[in-house]
What does this fold into?
Amino acid sequence: IEEEKKTGLVMEEVQLDALPYADKGFDDPRVQSAVAALIEEEKKTFRPNMQGYLAHLPPPPEYAFADAPLLADEYARVAAKKKLPPLDMSRYEVPPPAKTRVNDVNAWVEAANNAKAQLVLQSARIDNLELLSKFGPQAWRQHAEELERMERTYQARLENLKAEVQTVHWERKQEQEAAAATILELETKWGELLSRNYQTEQACLALEAENARIAAKAGLA
It folds into this structure.
């Protein structure tokens, strides 16, 4: 509860009075049809409060990108629903100088420097591929083994949760079946008491009628 208060996610306590293991009336198709009709009728009158249905949740955090202009630009792009621009592949190209700068020595120096940078990049890519070829399989096997261990761990947790849920269902069934017997006994006693009260009421009415007849006969009415 304290954690719910901290997060603001305090939900109203719901008291459930359903006894699915004890109530057998819903098995009747007529009852099912009546319940379905009531649900559909209720759904027609339901109007969600679009302004307040999230009122119990804490306000969303404010995003500030003062120190991250790239994130700010990306956030603005997503908010504007603009498409992601294509990758700029020009940095990987080795173009010659433009036709207007064919005789420009500086243009050729820039092109040569770009070509050298591309050669260094390709050399680094080759080194990375060689390292991946040498150590990659073993690294991936270790990663796969770690994933398998995680799967076994979560699978074991899942089985434990399923067992706990099954235990809860079994305990509910036992409690509700025991309650059903008590409810049936009380309903039987209630019916008997109603019958006795009815008989007593009829007897009282008969006595009143007899008293009225006797009083009338005796001239006391």
In short: The longest helix spans residues 105-217. Confidence is low (pLDDT under 50) at residues 1-11. The two ends are 72 Å apart (CA to CA). DSSP finds four helices and no strands in the chain.
